[in-house]
């Protein structure tokens, strides 16, 4: 496996190699739509279903506070990205806007990779949930993230 693939593989966010804004306006809108429509609801589901179970399993109330703080920063960056995308959609992008978009996308990707690592390789391993508890937790997460029976992927 190439070194990049482990970090930026099929289940990880892929940072853009470049931004050609004229060709990527629709793609940027799609990124913001995905982040707001799937990633943010997933984060809310983690806060409602995953983190309380992890805290209970490890016997440490507040053990997931840093993860919740990550979510706050992720949402803040998504909002900043959305603002930039709206500004770019309204007219030609300046070189400064292109640089700001790159910074937001790469910054968001870095935070997400670190957050996913902490979640998958630390929290879930420390929690040692039984198969039944994990199954129930994931069902609860789907119900929170997609309350109207939407696609869970």
Describe the protein.
The chain is mainly alpha-helical and 153 residues long. It has one domain (22-145). Helices cover 76% and strands 0% of the residues.
List keywords for this structure.
elongated, 76% helix, 5 helices, mainly alpha, 153 residues
Q: Which radius of gyration do the C-alpha atoms yield?
A: 17 Å
**Helix count from the secondary structure assignment:** 5
Main sheet overview = none
H/E element order: HHHHH
Mean pLDDT: 82
Helical content, roughly?
over 70%
Residue share in β-strands: under 5%
Name the structural class.
Answer: mainly alpha
Overall form: elongated
Q: Termini separation (Å)?
A: 25 Å
The overall number of domains is 1
Task: List low-confidence stretches.
Answer: 1-10, 14-20
How many β-strand runs? 0
Helix/strand layout:
Blueprint: H1 3-8, H2 21-58, H3 65-89, H4 95-127, H5 131-145
In short:
This protein is 76% helix and 0% strand. By secondary structure, the chain is mainly alpha-helical.
């Amino acid at each position: 496996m190439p070194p990049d693939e482990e970090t930026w593989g099929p289940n990880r966010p892929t940072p853009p190699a470049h931004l050609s804004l004229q060709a990527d306006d629709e793609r940027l809108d799609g990124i913001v739509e995905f982040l707001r429509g799937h990633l943010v609801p997933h984060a809310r589901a983690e806060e409602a279903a995953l983190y309380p179970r992890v805290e209970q399993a490890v016997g440490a109330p507040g053990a997931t506070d840093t993860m919740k703080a990550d979510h706050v920063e992720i949402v803040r960056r998504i909002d900043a990205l959305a603002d930039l995308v709206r500004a770019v959609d309204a007219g030609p992008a300046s070189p400064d806007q292109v640089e700001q978009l790159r910074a937001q996308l790469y910054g968001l990707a870095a935070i997400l990779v670190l957050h996913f690592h902490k979640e998958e390789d630390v929290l879930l391993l420390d929690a040692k949930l039984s198969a039944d508890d994990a199954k129930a937790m994931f069902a609860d997460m789907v119900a929170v993230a997609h309350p109207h029976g939407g696609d869970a992927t």
